[in-house]
Structure formats: C-alpha cells, structure tokens
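Recap from last week: sequence in, structure out.
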Amino acid sequence: MRTDNRKVKNTVVSIYFVLIVFGILMITVFKSLDFFVDSTFFIILGLFVILVLFHSIAGYFEYDSDGAKIVILNKGLILTEYINYRENKLEFSRQQLEGFKIKNYIVYKSLVVLIKNYDGTKIKERFNVTLLKPKKLKYVRQSLRKTIKANRKLKEG
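Predicted structure tokens:
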C-alpha cells in the first residue's frame, strides 16, 4: 500500500502566505495608527510563535509498503525541491517491524515505529503524521498491524 499527503501542500503554502501578510499588515497598521503601542511587540511575538508552531506541524508524509521493504518518509513542505531539510527516511524489511504506536496530541500526531536490527538492538523512529487525513492514517495503521501479525506467525511457526 502506498499513501501520502501531497494534496495538503497548496493549503500549507496558502496559510504561510496569509500568516506572513497578516504579520506585515499588523506591523504597518500598528505603527501608523499608534494603536496598541505598548503591546505591539507581544502581538508580533505571538504571531511569530504561531508561525513557528505551524512550521513544526506542516510536513510531508509518505508511506510505501509495496514489495519486500517498508519505506516511511517525512520531510518539510516548503522549499523541499531546493533545500532538503527536515528529512527523515526509514527503509526496513517487513520482518524487522516490532511494533508501532500513533500518538495523538492536541495539535500534533506522530507515528512511532519500533524496528529490531539484525544485531538485536531496537530503534524507535518518530514521524509527523499531523496533516495525514484520518482515512489514510487508518490505512497505514491497518498495513502496519497486518505486517506485525504476519511477523508473529513467522516467529511461532
């Protein structure tokens, strides 16, 4: 099964644009009208915090379980064609999957995957799945459960 959230990119770019334009507009209006003179800094700081929070949430997610290996990819949405930043890629064979958990925080969702290396050590990897639609997240969960179930049958038999 293969899924991703590439359709969200246009929405994310639009929200970035609106936040930046709103910030510039607020700065110019507050300075020209002397409106909220004492709290202008705090309003701009609040807008900056919202922009940073949104930047940490907005990410591209891709899941591919076709074939013998499972590939999970996370990367940023803005400027990814030019600068490869925030990329987290994990490629492993199906037999290495030990477990997974989807953690749902208030504004952030993450997929934690537990992988067992060939030398016996276990590795936890975390992926941002916040902007993945619930239906696609359900498909990822089903695929990972199916793989874990197949791995348990292999160990038993």
